[in-house]
Amino acid sequence: MSELTYDSLMDDGNYLGSERARMENKVILDELERKKKARNLAVPTDDNKVKARLREIGEPITLFGERAADRRDRLIYVLSQINAARGDDHTMEEASSEESEEEGEEFYTEGSLELLQARRNLAEFSLPRAQKRVAQQRIDSKIPLGRIIDIRKKVFAGVKRFSNIGSQIGDERPISQVRFAPNNKILATGSWSGTVKLWNVPACTTIRTLRGHGDRVGGVAWHPQATLTQEEGLVNLVSGAGDMCVNLWSLNSDAPLSVMKGHADRICRVAFHPSGNFVASASFDTTWRLWDVNSSKELLLQEGHSKEVYAVEFQGDGALIASGGLDAVGRVWDLRTGRTAMVLDGHVQGIFGIDFSPNGYQIATGAGDDTIRIWDMRSLKALYTIPAHVSNVSDVRFFRADALPSFKTKAESADVLMNGITEDTDADKSHDAEDDIQEWKYRSGLYLASSGYDGYVKLWSADDWQLLRTLTTDSGKVMSVDLTSDGELLASSTYNRNFQLFAPEDVPV
User: What is the 3-state secondary structure (H, E, C) of 263-330?
Assistant: First the structure.
């Protein structure tokens, strides 16, 4: 299969699919147009006049159990059907000035040329990634059920062995967020003192303290290639704070490489786009913003929440971004078009944590109503509600198996016997290695972690949403949680200035 690109997508004249799909699409559009015209129909509000009009057009004046409001709605529907059949916009009488004002034009804010180019770049980046993800999911769907059950048992058995291996005082004030570097060897912590610290893990020794904020740090995020292929002198880390600044950091300096200003209130969470070229920030000014890392300029100011925006996260493909606000509503935005792809409406308290599943279509939100909600973008509704904690759910993180662990290297090496002769088991080793890699790719997104203000970190299965493990901390409030991409470490930050490390009991650290 050829790689899907922006240009090939634009050149594909059959992107709507078959003729049947086009017809179904036309029916839907016609129905939406009919409903829009029906809203502009002026019909009488007096019930006697409604009955008279129904009799005039040959409809029953009333139906069993029908109320006056239902009768008026039926009249509107019938008139709209008649007008649609005639092919004209004939209405019974002129719409009132109030109704015409309500049906005003949709308002758009013109974007910059830089934003237009960024949207094109985002489309070009995300399309092949989505194609590869779907191709992998098709491969996973062919795994035998028995093999899937074995993988689940093995993965969940490891998750249930997580235990506390240490606690470290991280700062003078509460630690708001922890995030592991892509190489799983460095932990970044952001605290209310305004500092960002880098730690060796699991030794918990300080590498560097980054000072550049004048108020509490709300969020930190790593460049996708930081500590891997990204040079230390380039942008490797981003942080947002109460001083309304978004700072970009390298790994060889205590001072920020760039300070991006624009928000009108404190910044909570920040996120790096999978391409590494863009950063998003959520703020108490009721907006989230998209920044260009290379130019350090603001590309997009996005409104849409009625209260403070607390959480923001990118989808793995790079096409979507999700925001969660203290208005208890989450929104999924298509970065390529700027439109809302889904509204996550169901929580009754503010959303503090949000994360995309590696499968690309499920989203987890943690809120002040003590629950985690799982949303499915395919059905555009909540899939499951987890009664997760007995206080605020502060953070949610899916496990992402981005890095292959050491078994691949071991499988590729030859077995050497005691007498120095190499055993010829290449076929067996190759088969075992393929099984291990298949298992590792399948386990990505198989479980998630949550933290709460009840002092617990909890691990959940991500297929039947059952509790796998409850981990206690030394604080009453756990502020955030994160998992390494090799599945061997879990970190949490607490209100009492500590961060904790957890690992499976049988994993050497």
Answer: CCCCEEEEEECCCCCEEEEEECCCCEEEEECCCCEEEEEECCCCCCEEEEEECCCCCEEEEEECCCEE
Nearest to 365 by CA among 333, 393, 387: 393
Residue 177 phi, psi dihedral angles, 5° rounding: -155, 150
- Could you give the CA distance from residue 307 to residue 134 in angstroms, rounded to a whole number? 36
* Cα Rg of the chain (Å, integer): 27
Closest to 100 in 3D by CA, of 108, 111, 91, 109: 91
How far is it, in rounded angstroms, from Cα 38 to Cα 99?
12
Q: What pLDDT, on a 0 to 100 scale, did the predictor assign at position 329?
A: 95
Q: Percent of the chain scored above 70 by pLDDT?
A: 86
Helix (H) or strand (E) holding 126: helix 113-141
Residue 404's pLDDT band, with cuts at 50, 70 and 90, is low
Residue among 374, 393, 365 nearest 457 (CA): 393
Report pLDDT digits (tens) over 145-165.
Answer: 999 999 999 999 999 999 999
Number of C-beta neighbours around residue 438 at 10 A: 15
Residue type, 485: S
- The pLDDT tens digits of the residues spanning 42-79 come to 888 898 998 998 999 889 998 888 888 888 888 888 88
Min mean pLDDT across 33-42, 60-69, 296-305 is at 33-42
* The CA-based dihedral angle spanning residues 34, 36, 37, 38, taken in that order and rounded to the nearest 10 degrees: 80
Whether the CB-CB separation of 399 and 371 falls below 8 Å is answered with: no
pLDDT in tens, 266-292: 999 999 999 999 999 999 999 999 999
Q: For the chain, what's the residue count?
A: 509
Q: Are 347 and 353 in contact (CB under 8 A)?
A: no
* Cα 174 from Cα 178, distance rounded (Å): 11
CB atoms within 10 A of CB 372: 26
Half-sphere exposure of 437 (CA within 13 A, CB side): 13
Full 3-state SS string of 97-116:
HHHHHHCCCCCCCCCCHHHH
Residue whose token pair is 């899939």: 383
Helix (H) or strand (E) segment spanning residue 83: helix 68-86
4 — phi, psi (to 5°)? -80, 125
Residue with tokens 């997508």: 9
